[in-house]
Each structure stands twice: as C-alpha cells, then as structure tokens.
Specification:
Blueprint lengths: L2 E2 L4 E4 L4 E4 L2 E3 L11 E2 L3 E3 L10 H21 L1 H6 L1 H34 L3 H28 L24 H9 L6 H5 L2 H17 L5 H22 L2 H16 L2 H33 L3 H7 L1 H10 L6 H11 L3 H14 L2 H17 L6 H14 L9 H13 L7 H34 L4 H8 L13
Parallel strand pairs: 1-5, 2-6
Antiparallel strand pairs: 2-3, 3-4
C-alpha cells in the first residue's frame, strides 16, 4: 500500500539524507523507502556558487575609454566636443540618484550613531574621534586643493543651457539660507532636486524613527531595503562609466587640448601624495603620541590586507581580517567589534580628502572658484553626507555630486571630468580609509584601557606573529 506524504520533501546534498520540514530522515527508515513513499513535491537544494567579481573589467573598460577619448579629442576636436553629451548624460543619471542616496544614507546613519553610542564609553569616544579626524581630513583636502590648484588654466566652458546650471539666485543672509532648506511639502524636497532639503527631511525622519523605539524599527528596515535597491540601480549606472568617461574626455580634450590630461594627472598625483602624507604624517604622529606605536610597523603587520585592498579597490574586502588581527594584537574583542564596523561608515579619511580636492579641482577648472564661505559650507555638508559611503561602489561620486549640487549647482556639470579618473583614485581612498580605521582601533583601545600594549609591541616586533587560520565557519 502506498502511503502518500503531504509535506514537501527535499534532499540535503551534503549528507545525502532526505529532509521533511527541515528535519533529516534516516535513509534506511521505512518512511524513506521508495516503495512506501510517494513524493509529491520534491525540491533539490543546491548551494549557489559565489558570484565572480567582474569589477576589474569595468576598470579596464574605463582605461580604454579614457585613451580613446583623449585620442579622439586630439585628432578630431570638433567631434570630441559633440560627444561631450555622453558625459553629461552620465552625470544626469548620477544626479537622478542623488536624493534617494542621501536620504537613505542619512536616515540609517543616524541609527548607526545611536547604536554606537549605546555601547558605552568606547562607542562615544570612537564617534568623537571619527568625526574629528574625518573633519580634519576634509580640511586637509581643501588646503591642498587651494595650494596646488590643479584645475586652474583648464578653462572648461560652462554649458549655459545645462540643466545643472543654477536658475535661482542664492538666498541672502543666514535667515534666507535657513528658509531655503525648509521644503514646501514633504515630497517637494525630492522633486525639486534640492539636496539640502532632502538632507533636512532625512534628519527629521531618522531621529523620528529612532525616537519610536521598537515601533520605528520596521521603518528603518524598509529604508534599509530601499537603500539596497537604490545602490543596485547605482551599480548598474556605474557600468556606463566607460561611455561617460569617453565622452567627457573627448569633449574636454577637444576644448582644451592635451592640457586637460596633464592637469588630471597632477590631480591624481597630488591626491596620492596627500593620502601618503596623511597616513604617515598625520595618523602616524597621532598614533605615536598617544600609544607609542610606530605607524610603519603597523602597516607592515597589515601588509597582506593592504595588498588585498589595492587589488580590489575596496577597504571592506579586508574587514574580517582586520578585526581578527586587531584582536590578536591585543585590543579587546568588544572594542574591536564596536570601532571597526562603525569606522567603516564614519571614519572615511581617504574619501573625505577626495571629496574636497575634487570639488576644488572642478571649481578651478571651470573658472568659478569657491569663496571661503562656500568652502566651509561644503565642508560641513560633506561631514554629514559622507557618512555611510564606504563599501558602496559609486557612493563617492554621488556624494561629490550632492555636495556641488547643494552649494554650487552650476559646477555639477564638471563632475563628468572626474568620472574618468575616479577609478584611478579609488585605491588611494580605500587604503587611506583602511589605515584610518586600524589606527582608530588602537587609539580607542588605549583611551578606554582595553588594549594590552605589551602584546601590541610583541606582535609588531615579531615575537608573537599572527598566523592565518582557515575558518570554514
């Protein structure tokens, strides 16, 4: 007699046993015998292979597009000028995504601040350090940008008919500025394209959701899912970067000649030099003064992670190993668990330097330099908007566009020039972000008394080397 089974079955391919409602059955039991069982709904569970990282193809495509754009701009400058629209279209796609990116990032960022602050002294000290150091990094970018002025002399013309050009006069006075931040309606902030109004709404929503306690968690979960959707769209847009880079470079070289290539090269070189000075000069000095640790020894200890980041252009690729190595070096596990993950959202020193240097470059290249007041305003905006940009491909470009859109909309047209070289600057950004977080972990551990300094020196001097352990779990 055949006994029907009404519950769905599946096979565990690892152990070879049959599963009903998630419970393995004895393959030799009577109920598992094929002569007594009729399987009505059988599902085979197969582990999906990990997705291959194809970002290196995008990197190669951008390089080819840049070379092609430069060549076309030199050989056929008039055609290059006509193809500049490709770069403008790419920036339009980035502009389209700015408001939702800022909204989601700020709302969820406020949640991260509260989560870090609730863990006690270590969380509070970490947040204070992150804000201070990232602000300092932004200021360094402004200072270097003003000193070098890599964009001066490019004379990139402003497209008067561009949708990026500001059409409304800026409000005068402090009260006028505050009034311009308040939107007419809740949703008009998104439809008008005013980044500061979106920022205002995001701050209100973030704190309101947090004040609701557990009842506000579904709202934050919804926004978290929305953020994933938005960044998925942003990732698709970034695959069009080679097209945008080709059009932008062809147009700029067609208008300015080979000078554009030289100036962009100066910007890249200046950015790398600034990051190196920041790591070994600023971070190294702070680390030595407060802990007595040599920054060169710390970098040697984290050498494998630095190589991994350089290969992937993402500081998050080394996050798990950084946590393990910081624990091995003598920092208490709770401190590592607080500082490192939070730092990947709030301690973005490399990104901060990039944002302000790129902004100054664009303003100078378009012969529309920023006043000191505008630079300070941009600095304040970047302090807020840059939080949460780490680990998300393209978030740096989106934040740069948002900052220019909020303070000097007419400069947004110049972002397409940066798009072409953004990939070349991503390694320095990621390496600086990583170095900043490793230093921050030791500093917070020292300030909270949760680090064994003898262990630190033993590890860095090679007496207690870190041994890689394969973790299959």
């Amino acid at each position: 007699m055949i006994t029907p089974i009404k519950k769905a079955e599946s096979y565990d391919l690892v152990f070879g046993s049959r599963i009903i409602e998630g419970k393995p059955m004895d393959p030799h039991s009577e109920s598992s015998n094929s002569s007594h069982v009729e399987v009505r709904n059988e599902h085979i569970k197969v582990a999906k292979p990990p997705k291959k990282d194809r970002t290196h193809w995008l990197y190669i495509a951008v390089i080819i597009a840049l070379i092609a754009g430069i060549t076309l701009g030199l050989i056929a400058p008039e055609l290059g000028k006509e193809l500049k629209i490709l770069g403008t279209m790419f920036v339009s796609l980035i502009k389209m995504i700015i408001a939702p990116v800022i909204f989601c990032t700020i709302v969820l960022g406020i949640g991260s601040v509260k989560a870090a602050a609730t863990v006690g002294r270590a969380g509070g000290i970490a947040l204070a350090y992150f804000i201070t150091m990232s602000t300092f990094a932004l200021a360094v970018g402004l200072i270097v940008g003003n000193f070098i002025q890599p964009g001066s002399g490019l004379n990139i013309p402003v497209d008067e008919e561009s949708s990026f050009a500001g059409t409304e006069s800026s409000p005068e006075g402090l009260l006028g500025f505050i009034h311009s931040i308040i939107p007419e309606t809740f949703f008009s902030a998104f439809t008008s394209g005013s980044v500061l109004q979106v920022l205002f709404i995001a701050i209100l929503v973030g704190f309101a959701a947090q004040s609701m306690g557990e009842k506000g968690q579904p709202i934050l979960d919804l926004i978290s899912h929305l953020q994933k959707l938005i960044f998925k769209i942003l990732n698709w847009i970034l695959w069009l970067a080679p097209v945008g880079a080709f059009g932008a470079m062809a147009g700029v070289v067609g208008e300015t000649g080979f000078d554009a290539v030289i100036q962009l090269g100066i910007l890249i070189l200046a950015f790398y030099v600034t990051c190196v000075i920041f790591i070994f000069g600023v971070l190294g000095t702070v680390l030595k003064v407060f802990t007595g640790v040599n920054i060169f020894k710390l970098c040697r200890y984290l050498g494998k992670e630095f190589l991994l980041i350089f290969a992937t252009s993402s500081s998050e690729s080394a996050l798990p190993n950084l946590m393990r190595k910081m624990e091995h070096i003598g920092v208490a596990k709770p401190t590592v668990g607080i500082v490192v993950p939070t730092g990947y959202s709030f301690n973005l020193d490399g990104t901060a330097i990039y944002l302000t240097m790129a902004s100054i470059f664009i303003a100078d290249a378009m012969n529309m330099p920023m006043s000191l007041g505008e630079q300070v305003g941009l600095l304040v905006f970047m302090i807020i908007a840059s939080k949460g940009a780490a680990g998300v491909s393209g978030a740096g470009i989106a934040t740069l566009a948002a900052g220019l859109s909020s303070h000097r909309p007419e400069l947004l047209h110049g972002v397409d020039v940066i798009v072409g070289i953004d990939k070349f600057m991503s390694e320095a950004r990621a390496l600086t972000n990583f170095a900043g977080n490793s230093v921050a972990t030791l500093l917070v551990g020292k300030w909270t008394g949760t680090v064994n300094m003898q262990q630190v020196h033993d590890v860095l001097d090679g007496r207690k080397p870190y041994v890689d352990v394969e973790d299959d779990h």
